[in-house]
Fold this protein.
Amino acid sequence: MIYRNFLPRANYFFSHPKRFFSSSSNAKHLSYCISSWFRIPEKGMQEFEFLSRASGFIVKTGNWEGGQKSKGVLRIIASAHVILPFQFPNYYPVEQYEWLHSIGRENIQARLEIRKPNGEIKFSTVLANSYKTHHIRDLAALRAEDDDELISQLSSIQNDDGTPHDHFIFHDLRDTSLCPRDEIVFHGHRLIHTEDHSQAQEPCVVPGSFIGMNDRQQCFARTQSVLQMGMCGGPILDSNGSCVGTVEGIVADTAPPHLRGLATFVDSQQILKFIDQVQEEEELESL
């Protein structure tokens, strides 16, 4: 692979640790949990069963006036391999996950959740059965069943002490490129294993710095610690709080030593183009 502006300066952002959240328990969490569930009625399944989970975030698109929707739309950004894992045979080989590849889009249900710092579910809602995926990148755009209803639900959430919850957040996508060594922060939810051997999620924040982009427009960053399972789909913020991308994953251990463990992500400019494409598709579908 050809790397553009590849500057392996691992210690750059470690010299500015106080500018970032160092603990998920002290951070203001800026991402949501996204999970996918499946049900195959013809095989006797009555209820949806868990399939996969990771992170996601919400952006406003279109026209919004005074915080109210005019011709605007809420887009929930997530990783495509979490919502539709059967479309990723490189992650889930058919010979190893034959059952998974018998599932179709019509069998999927996606949910948006808010988690407390201890991983407990604070809020959960089923999303619309409309999953738009990027043709190359591990990127998906989801919708709420009703935008106004979702806004109302999020606005009414309270903390345990009765104060308003601070999780009612929409992200602005930055329309300019990052520069090498720009400081960024990864927000998401890491998977944790509970006593009953089920998977839960807890908020996680990891500081990092941008390295560069390769010729396939895949972005890379160094992180203070290797991103854990569950962080895919989470927003990446710059020092001004603007969203500059979403997590795709980490570089595998089979890569050259100097690349292993780097975070890979889709930058915000590609997300903006993808959202425009989704909007055009929806307009054509409505004709």
In short: Residues 268-285 form the longest helix (18 residues). The longest strand covers residues 199-214. Confidence is low (pLDDT under 50) at residues 1-27. Residues 127 and 144 are 5 Å apart (CA to CA).
